[in-house]
Amino acid sequence: MKILVFIQVDDNKINKMSLEALRCAQMISNDVTAVTFNEQAANELSSINLSEVTLVNNEKLTNYNPLYFASALEKLINTDYKAILFAHTYETRDWVPRLSARLDYPFIADCIDLKNDNDNLIVTRQTYQGKLNNDFELKSNAFCSIQSGSFKSDDLETGNTNINTVDLNLDDIKNTIKSEEKFKEQKGGVDLSAADIIVSVGRGIAKEENIPLAEEVTSLLNAELGSSRPIVDYGWLPHDRQIGSSGQVVSPKLYFSLGVSGAIQHQVGMKGSDKIMAINKDENAPIFEISDYTVVGDLLEIVPKLIERIKEN
């Protein structure tokens, strides 16, 4: 089974979710090709165990343009590829549907799992905000985008892979899109998906005056501060700190939950974390069902003692 994985590059760095998609491909096939439009990314990918790294050369692909991106990949794709995988990002959600329509390939978005069942590809995606898992058997070639945190890029198999450079002519593509300045988070905003450690606060923090307590432990752990939706609704933290179905999706090495009950809408945004540690007064809090380490108690009593111990060490 041949699999093609598109590698997205942001600010000259490989998007972490693209590497997760690459790991997904490794788990279901021994014949995986990674394609990128960035030379530096191609060099990095050559140290991963793949069948081939394809570097597409054309100056029109230097900056994001959905028309050029879709046309470039259209010229590369052949029917030998059972599936073409992408990270589930804002960019791919913009241009992959265009390509899907052109090639008449189904596009299964936000997948959490793919399985190879005797060369039949089974794709799993969630519905009703993560309450149900739906399995689809692919009857044709298809595009699939992979949900953040569904696979671990740290588990990628290393190797020594050749780079195949392809020069594409895109002069026949008429650009009808006027590019604006690339979207940036609001000033002071943060990309929580890049954090190795996240300390997340929920209603158990009790009041806004206690937020500095969470900020202190966040600083001591060299972490980023996140929150559940109620904290943002109260106005105690900005929306760019919100984690969940209506916020950011994260998969840090450690997710430290302080007073977060862990409703399904929140779990959708963080259940892909490597390790989850939770403190909550409610022993029946849903967060405990997915936690690796649990503490039943009042965070306002526990966290100050934790801060003292961290400072001692």
Can you give a write-up of this model?
The protein is of the alpha/beta class and 313 residues long. It has 2 domains: 166 residues, Rossmann fold; 121 residues, Rossmann fold (3-Layer(aba) Sandwich). It is 25% helix and 28% strand. It has 8 helices and 16 strands. A hairpin with a 4-residue loop joins strand 8 and strand 9. Helix 3 crosses helix 4 and helix 5 runs parallel beside helix 8. The termini are far apart.
Global shape:
elongated
For the secondary structure, the number of strands is 16
* Name of the CATH superfamily of the largest domain: HUPs
Number of helices: 8
Strand fraction: 25-35%
Overall pLDDT? 92
Based on CA atoms alone, the radius of gyration comes out at 21 Å
The strand line-up of the biggest sheet is 9-8-7-10-6-1-4-5-11
Named CATH topology of the largest domain: Rossmann fold
**How many structural domains can be distinguished in the coordinates?**
2
CATH architecture of the largest domain: 3-Layer(aba) Sandwich
Separation of the first and last Cα atoms = 51 Å
Unreliable parts: none
Tell me the helix content: 10-25%
- Largest sheet: number of strands, sense, barrel closure: 9 strands, mixed
Top-tier CATH class of the largest domain: Alpha Beta
Summing up helix and strand content along with how strands pair, one would put the structural category as: alpha/beta
